[in-house]
Amino acid sequence: MIEERLPEWLKKPAGPLKNLHELKKTLRARGLNTVCESARCPNIGECFTRPTATFMILGERCTRECGFCGVKKGSGGGHVLPPDRAEPENVALTAMEMGLKHVVITSVTRDDLPDGGAEHFAKTIKAIRANSSSTFIEVLIPDFRGDEAALDIVLQAAPDILNHNLETVPSLYSVVRPGADFVRSIELLRRASDFGATVKTGIMVGFGETGEEVRSLMRVVKDAGCEILTIGQYLRPTRDSLKVKEYVHPDIFREYEDYGKEIGLKEVYSGPLIRSSYNADKVYGRLSQN
Ligand code: SF4
């Protein structure tokens, strides 16, 4: 994360990094990636003290160029490699050995693959189920360029939560999320909800959006059948990433959480340090009590 004068509410001690280093060794040994490092996540120390982890599959280079993202890009000479056939089993073995209760599987976007990597997601879900049937599986998927057949491949593998982040409000897509399409992403969430999946999405604020744009997005998300929404503060991961336009005050996050409940969203997890996978197990725990 680029060192900028952060307001008090964003200052968080890194937390114990011992578990993180051990996890990194385990991941490296199996050629696996996690998104936490490249995203410069402020919760990285805390998360690894708990039986949950986020694995990034389909390589460490992305075919897109989102302005907020610290993941390596496939353009500019870096090549995206073919998916590692052993990856699904390696993720499953690692999850089993670590005794993970909640696993989040995310990926870079692979517009170079015919199915965008959907089959690889399905294989990873099935491999985890085969190795540790009680592990809860959340997938955070790309938009598969709106390919419904690809989405159905993932849905038929029956993840416990289908997550796809909208990231920001529609008026900022061209700057924050070029290559993506707000309506296309909403249709993905709607199709997953119609399919019967528990659907989750997330955004970051601080890119210059207005409060009314966020509330309008929340209404559209509710209408699309989403049950869980996360809202967090954008933090600049690299010097090449977009500048932060605003550090949104915690009171505003609370207002978004209250508004979400008011319009009937089952679970709104909103706060400066909230991230899509942060406390993912707790959030789902709360949802299943609702
Ligand atoms: S598609 Fe995902 S991994 Fe790729 S640049 Fe955008 S946010 Fe990062």
Core attributes:
alpha/beta; TIM Barrel; seven-stranded parallel β-sheet; two-stranded parallel sheet; globular; binds iron/sulfur cluster
Detailed description of the structure:
The chain is an alpha/beta fold and 290 residues long. It has one domain (17-289): Aldolase class I (TIM Barrel, Alpha-Beta Barrel), CATH 3.20.20.70. It is 37% helix and 14% strand. It has helices at residues 18-29, 35-38, 44-47, 87-97, 118-131, 148-156, 173-176, 182-194, 211-223, 250-262, 280-289, and strands at residues 52-57, 61-62, 72-73, 102-107, 136-140, 161-163, 199-205, 228-233, 267-270. The radius of gyration is 18 Å and the shape is globular. The longest helix has 14 residues, at 118-131. The structure holds iron/sulfur cluster (SF4). Iron/sulfur cluster is lined by residues 62, 64-66, 69, 71, 108-109, 142. Residues 62, 64-66, 69, 71, 108-109, 142 line the site of iron/sulfur cluster.
What's this, in brief?
The protein contains 11 helices and 9 strands. By secondary structure, it is of the alpha/beta class. The protein has a single domain (17-289), classed as Aldolase class I (TIM Barrel).
Helix share bin: 25-40%
Note the main sheet.
7 strands, parallel
Q: How many DSSP helices?
A: 11
The CATH homologous superfamily corresponds to Aldolase class I
Ligand types: iron/sulfur cluster
Q: Low-confidence segments, ≥5 residues, pLDDT <50?
A: none
